[in-house]
Amino acid sequence: MPKQSTNMSGLQCLATENIWFDKHRYDEAEKCFYEGVNGPSTQQQQNDVNPILLDIAKSRQNIQQSLNGVKTALQQGKGRQQKRQHRNSSSHAGGDQELVSRMKSLELENQTLHKVVENMRAALQKLESRVAMLEKTPVLAAVPCAKAAPVQAAPVKQVKVENGGGDDDDDDDDIDLFGSDEEDEEAERLKQERLEAYAAKKAKKPTLIAKSSILLDVKPWDDETDMAKLEECVRSVQMDGLLWGASKLVPVGYGIKKLQINCVVEDDKVGTDILEEEITKFEDFVQSVDVAAFNKI
């Protein structure tokens, strides 16, 4: 029983004691005590600073920034002006060098053109002289003896004058003032022989045959067409002046291939129209024929 009464007295003491419930009041009192001893806190001092000083500091900072901006602007302007001057000077120098180089190139081109013109003039003079010689040569070769024959003078017979009236008529008969016609016939015969020999020699020269190289594109109906048989049908076309060459298969698309074959033809004997007509006769294999290339040989 005494122990229980002791516990009850302790609880009653705690119930009557209120220091913990008013702790904030004690903390505030302690704070005021220390502030009275040591003076106000630094935070309160900072809050009490005059706002005019802050405005003065801000204005000083703004002035300093504006001065720095003016300096940088002046420096940038000077730098730009120097760059422009440098560019102008370099552009003037480059322009002068370009003009000098272009003038030199024009002078060289002018010299080369003069040389070309002189060479062309010399070649033209040579051609004119050769044409003149060729124009004169056939006339001299055709009648070499026709000019030489008339030059030969007719032989003059010596006339002996003898006395006697009976022999005068006989002597007059023997005199030939214009010569005989045998010499003219001989000159004509020689002239004709020379002309015949010249014509025969000219006929023996081989004549130039004009030929052309043709590349044909032969297209089948579909991808199931036998291309070997198609090529065999194309090569079966034979005629005078036609010679078949190499061939190859060229893919067109969707598995279809066309036959590309080359041939050489004589222009006077074989034409492209005849070739197309002959090849398109194989209707089972050939759909169309086109001329891919045509070159003169």
Instruction: Report the CATH topology name of the domain at 211-296.
Output: Alpha-Beta Plaits
Number of helices: 9
Q: What is the average of the pLDDT values?
A: 76
Work out the strand percent. 5-15%
Structural class: alpha+beta
What is the C-level CATH assignment of the domain at 211-296? Alpha Beta
At a glance:
This is Eukaryotic translation elongation factor 1 delta a (guanine nucleotide exchange protein). This protein is α+β, with helices and mostly antiparallel strands.
Explain how this protein is built.
This protein has 297 residues and is an alpha+beta fold. The protein has a domain at 211-296: Ribosomal protein S6/Translation elongation factor EF1B (Alpha-Beta Plaits). The chain is 62% helix and 15% strand. The chain has helices at residues 2-16, 23-38, 42-47, 51-142, 144-151, 168-174, 182-204, 227-235, 272-279; strands spanning 211-220, 242-253, 256-266, 286-296. It has a 4-stranded antiparallel beta sheet with strand order 2-3-1-4, covered by helices on one side. Strand 2 and strand 3 (256-266) form a beta hairpin. The chain is elongated. Residues 1-6 and 139-169 have low confidence and may be disordered. Belongs to the EF-1-beta/EF-1-delta family. One of its GO terms (cellular component) is cytosol. Residues 177-202 form the Elongation factor 1 beta central acidic region eukaryote domain.
Record keyword descriptors for this entry.
4 strands, alpha+beta, Alpha-Beta Plaits, 4-stranded antiparallel beta sheet, 297 residues, disordered N terminus
